[in-house]
């Protein structure tokens, strides 16, 4: 975290192979789940990024024995969890800095009968409410008090009881947290309108390996038969689909020939299709995606000839984390597209930087932007800019790599929170990036 900006000289065509890191969103859930058992759990393909490392460090502070066997493999044993530590100022400070720390609440509550949840902070993409988590725990029989002095929810229970619940939104972290709490609740729990992202499917598979009884995996109706205890297991994380989408956009924008290795194709859902709608050619070669050099790519229209709209939607719809990538990639396409961000406020607030770079974008309101692709008639030009959140940061990095001249991207610890060694990995493909 020592450096604070990337200096990027754009215009290079990149070439080569890149391997996506393990999925960040999956990692935060899977690593929290180690608290559900006193036995040893081994996790592979862990992304070496700030948010994940902070969570691993937090577990260590809580008394979990952590052994980092290699950069991407860790063993955990939660047989001596220090519940006193959860009430300490250090825990408050550390967990308050880390949005993913909310995920330890479900496991702690079901195994130890108590948990502390910080009010969320994190990046600037609008309000991230915890209602789904807290209301789900309440339905399972937990009581909570909110402490205004320390901004923490204190949760406790003398034993969770299975129940039926219909979530008011299919929150990924909310579903995961409630699912982890429910696996050791008494009786049957049904979660309807559950999130069904690959992250959740992976978590469910891992919990079932540990002895949980979860059915309906991959659907929005999960049924959990409570068990009295769970055992250890081994789990390997999927590749990060957000990175994979980012690399597809990068290849198209910079007219590069790139092979993305080991992508976990069957878990990518509609993502490749959305990039094809922008006119980008992709070839599936085994479990790799090959993107050839394309002089130009043309945005498709709907069948009746009207302008394409790409919007986000809970899985298996298009993930909101890739909308900013699609938006930036569309600036160099031929044709127009409406980007509609339904699920978060202010995720589009980085487009002013792209407009400064010369992109033709109409920001209609906080949720919608129309991109008029210039088909590279006018290259983007390098500017100095700051990254408001993790995903926008990478979108701006992609824009800078395709632009003429030098760009400086500040506040890059936002990028480091989500992407491991992104500068080194892109330099290996021929990108001109320097940390300053």
TrEMBL record:
<feature type="binding site">
    <location>
        <position position="99"/>
    </location>
    <ligand>
        <name>UDP-N-acetyl-alpha-D-glucosamine</name>
    </ligand>
</feature>
<feature type="binding site">
    <location>
        <position position="343"/>
    </location>
    <ligand>
        <name>UDP-N-acetyl-alpha-D-glucosamine</name>
    </ligand>
</feature>
<comment type="function">
    <text>Cell wall formation. Adds enolpyruvyl to UDP-N-acetylglucosamine.</text>
</comment>
<dbReference type="GO" id="GO:0071555">
    <property type="term" value="P:cell wall organization"/>
</dbReference>
<keyword id="KW-0132">Cell division</keyword>
<protein>
    <recommendedName>
        <fullName>UDP-N-acetylglucosamine 1-carboxyvinyltransferase</fullName>
        <ecNumber>2.5.1.7</ecNumber>
    </recommendedName>
</protein>
<keyword id="KW-0808">Transferase</keyword>
<dbReference type="InterPro" id="IPR013792">
    <property type="entry name" value="RNA3'P_cycl/enolpyr_Trfase_a/b"/>
</dbReference>
<dbReference type="GO" id="GO:0019277">
    <property type="term" value="P:UDP-N-acetylgalactosamine biosynthetic process"/>
</dbReference>
<comment type="similarity">
    <text>Belongs to the EPSP synthase family. MurA subfamily.</text>
</comment>
<comment type="pathway">
    <text>Cell wall biogenesis; peptidoglycan biosynthesis.</text>
</comment>
<feature type="binding site">
    <location>
        <position position="321"/>
    </location>
    <ligand>
        <name>UDP-N-acetyl-alpha-D-glucosamine</name>
    </ligand>
</feature>
<dbReference type="InterPro" id="IPR036968">
    <property type="entry name" value="Enolpyruvate_Tfrase_sf"/>
</dbReference>
<dbReference type="GO" id="GO:0005737">
    <property type="term" value="C:cytoplasm"/>
</dbReference>
<feature type="active site" description="Proton donor">
    <location>
        <position position="123"/>
    </location>
</feature>
<keyword id="KW-0961">Cell wall biogenesis/degradation</keyword>
<dbReference type="Pfam" id="PF00275">
    <property type="entry name" value="EPSP_synthase"/>
</dbReference>
<feature type="domain" description="Enolpyruvate transferase">
    <location>
        <begin position="8"/>
        <end position="424"/>
    </location>
</feature>
<feature type="binding site">
    <location>
        <begin position="24"/>
        <end position="25"/>
    </location>
    <ligand>
        <name>phosphoenolpyruvate</name>
    </ligand>
</feature>
<keyword id="KW-0963">Cytoplasm</keyword>
<dbReference type="GO" id="GO:0008360">
    <property type="term" value="P:regulation of cell shape"/>
</dbReference>
<dbReference type="InterPro" id="IPR050068">
    <property type="entry name" value="MurA_subfamily"/>
</dbReference>
<keyword id="KW-0573">Peptidoglycan synthesis</keyword>
<keyword id="KW-0133">Cell shape</keyword>
<dbReference type="InterPro" id="IPR001986">
    <property type="entry name" value="Enolpyruvate_Tfrase_dom"/>
</dbReference>
<dbReference type="GO" id="GO:0051301">
    <property type="term" value="P:cell division"/>
</dbReference>
<keyword id="KW-0131">Cell cycle</keyword>
<dbReference type="GO" id="GO:0008760">
    <property type="term" value="F:UDP-N-acetylglucosamine 1-carboxyvinyltransferase activity"/>
</dbReference>
<dbReference type="GO" id="GO:0009252">
    <property type="term" value="P:peptidoglycan biosynthetic process"/>
</dbReference>
<dbReference type="InterPro" id="IPR005750">
    <property type="entry name" value="UDP_GlcNAc_COvinyl_MurA"/>
</dbReference>
């Amino acid at each position: 975290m020592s450096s604070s900006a990337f200096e990027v000289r754009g215009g290079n065509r990149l070439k080569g192979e890149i391997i996506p890191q393990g999925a960040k969103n999956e990692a935060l859930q899977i690593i929290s789940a180690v608290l559900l058992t006193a036995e040893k759990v081994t996790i592979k393909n862990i992304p070496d990024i700030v948010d994940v490392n902070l969570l691993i460090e937090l577990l260590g502070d809580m008394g979990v024995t952590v052994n980092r066997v290699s950069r991407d493999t860790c063993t955990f044993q939660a047989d001596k969890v220090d519940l006193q530590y959860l009430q300490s100022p250090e825990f408050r400070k550390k967990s308050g800095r880390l949005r993913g720390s909310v995920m330890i609440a479900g496991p702690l509550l079901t195994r130890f009968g108590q948990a502390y949840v910080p009010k969320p902070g994190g990046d600037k993409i609008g309000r991230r409410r915890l209602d789904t988590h807290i209301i789900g725990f309440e339905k399972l029989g937990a009581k909570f008090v909110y402490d205004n002095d320390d901004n923490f929810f204190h949760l406790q229970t003398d034993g969770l009881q299975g129940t039926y619940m219909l979530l008011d939104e299919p929150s990924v972290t909310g579903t995961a947290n409630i699912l982890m709490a429910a696996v050791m609740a008494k009786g049957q729990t049904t979660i309807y309108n559950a999130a069904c992202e690959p992250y959740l499917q992976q978590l469910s598979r891992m919990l079932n390996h540990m002895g949980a009884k979860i059915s309906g995996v991959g659907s929005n109706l999960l049924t959990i038969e409570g068990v009295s205890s769970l055992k250890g297991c081994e789990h390997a994380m999927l590749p990060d689909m957000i990175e994979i989408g980012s690399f597809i956009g990068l290849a198209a924008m910079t007219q590069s020939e790139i092979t993305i290795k080991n992508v976990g194709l069957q878990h990518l859902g509609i993502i490749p299709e959305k990039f094809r709608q922008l006119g980008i050619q992709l070839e599936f070669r085994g479990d790799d995606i090959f993107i050839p050099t394309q002089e130009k790519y043309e945005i498709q229209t709907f069948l009746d000839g009207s302008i394409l709209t790409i919007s986000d939607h809970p899985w298996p719809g298009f993930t909101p984390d890739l909308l900013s990538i699609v938006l930036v990639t569309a600036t160099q396409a031929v044709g127009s597209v409406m980007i509609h961000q339904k699920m978060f406020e202010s995720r589009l607030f980085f487009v002013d930087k792209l407009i400064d770079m010369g992109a033709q974008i109409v920001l209609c309101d906080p949720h919608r932007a129309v991109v008029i692709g210039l088909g590279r008639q006018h290259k983007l030009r390098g500017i100095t800019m700051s990254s408001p959140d993790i995903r926008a940061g990478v979108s701006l990095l992609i824009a800078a790599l395709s632009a003429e001249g030098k760009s400086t991207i500040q506040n890059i610890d936002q990028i480091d929170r989500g992407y491991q060694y992104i500068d080194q990995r892109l330099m290996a493909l021929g990108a001109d990036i320097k940390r300053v």
